Amino acid sequence: MTAQSSIFAPDFSETPYWWDGCRPNDAGAGELPRETDVAIIGAGYAGISCALELAARGTEVIVLEAELPGIGASTLSGGQVTGGVNVGKSMSKRVSAAAGNSAIEGRLREAAAGYRFLETLIARYGIDCDYRRNGRIAAAWTAAQVGSWEGRIARLNAHTDSDVRMLDRNELRSELASEVYVGGALINGAGHLHPAKFFGGLLTAALGAGARLACHARVTSIERARAGHRISTGRGEIFAKRVVIATNGYTGPATPGSNGVLSRSPRIRSRPRFCPRSCKCRSSPRIAAWPRPTG
Ligand SMILES: Cc1cc2nc3c(=O)[nH]c(=O)nc-3n(C[C@H](O)[C@H](O)[C@H](O)COP(=O)(O)OP(=O)(O)OC[C@H]3O[C@@H](n4cnc5c(N)ncnc54)[C@H](O)[C@@H]3O)c2cc1C
C-alpha cells in the first residue's frame, strides 16, 4: 500500500459518486444526418434542455456531443437548487455598482423563474431525481461572513422565492451538529436533487420528444455556408440552419470567444447524520464544502 492510498477508505472510488445512480452512456444515440434545422453542440443540461424545448415544438434538432451525454459538469455538480442565492452573491460583490439595482433585481427574478421552470420540468416529465425542497444552510465561520449574508437577504427575499432568514450560533447548532460556526443563513426555499438522475431524465424526455443525439462527435469547426453553417465533427460533416453552442468550460478552439476553467471536486460519503432537516449545507471558507445527505 502506498502512502497516498493508505488515507482512503477501502471502497474509495475515482468514479464520480453520482454515476452510481446514472452513468453517462450512448443509449438512444444515432448516426449523424447530413443536415438539420438546429445543431446543438454539447450534451449537458443546457444542450439537452434546449433540444427538449425545440423538439417539443416540432423543430428538427440534433445534439452533437464530443464524448458521452452528461460526461461534463451536469452529472458532477453538487445538486443544489437555489434559484438566485448564487446570483445574488456575485451581483452584490462585483456587479452592483456598474449594473445598477434594476439589472441586478431583473437577474434575480430570472433566476427565481429558472427554479420554477425546473420544478415544472420535473413534474411534466415525471423525472425521478430525488428532488426535495427542504432548504439549505449556509454556515459561516466568521462574523464578516454573517454580515455579508445580512446585507443580502432583503434583496433575495424581495426578488426570489429563497425565503432566507439568519440563524444565530445557537439556532445553527440545532440545525447542524457542529460547534465551529458562528451563525449562518437558512434558505428555506432551496432544494437539492440527484444531478445525474436529473440529467438522465432530461435526456430521456428530449429523445422522447424527437431530439436526436450523436455521441463521440466532437465539433472541430463551424463555417458559414449557404443560409446556415457547415459543422465538422469527428464523425463527418453536418449542415445546420442554426447552431447553439452549449459546451460550458469544456469548450475548445471550435467555439472561440468562450473559455472555462475546469476544477476537480471530491465527494465524501459519510455515515453519521448531523443535520435533522436533512438539507444541504454549505460551509463558507474559500475551499467550498457542501455536505448533502444521501440516505
Ligand atoms: C463541482 C461542481 C459542483 C457544482 N454544483 C452545482 C450545484 O450544486 N448547483 C448548480 O446549480 N450548479 C452546480 N454546478 C454547475 C453546474 O453543474 C453547471 O452549470 C451545469 O452542469 C452546466 O451545464 P452545461 O450543459 O452548460 O455544461 P456541461 O454539462 O459541462 O456540458 C458541456 C458538454 O459539452 C461537450 N463539449 C465540449 N466541447 C465540445 C465540442 N467541441 N463538441 C461537442 N461537444 C463538446 C462536453 O463534452 C460536455 O458534455 C457545479 C459544477 C461543478 C463543476
From TrEMBL:
UniProt keyword list: Oxidoreductase
Protein name (record): FAD-binding oxidoreductase
Matches recorded under Pfam families: DAO (PF01266)
Superkingdom assignment: Bacteria
Record flagged with keyword Isomerase: no
Oxidoreductase keyword on record: yes
Domain FAD dependent oxidoreductase: 37-257
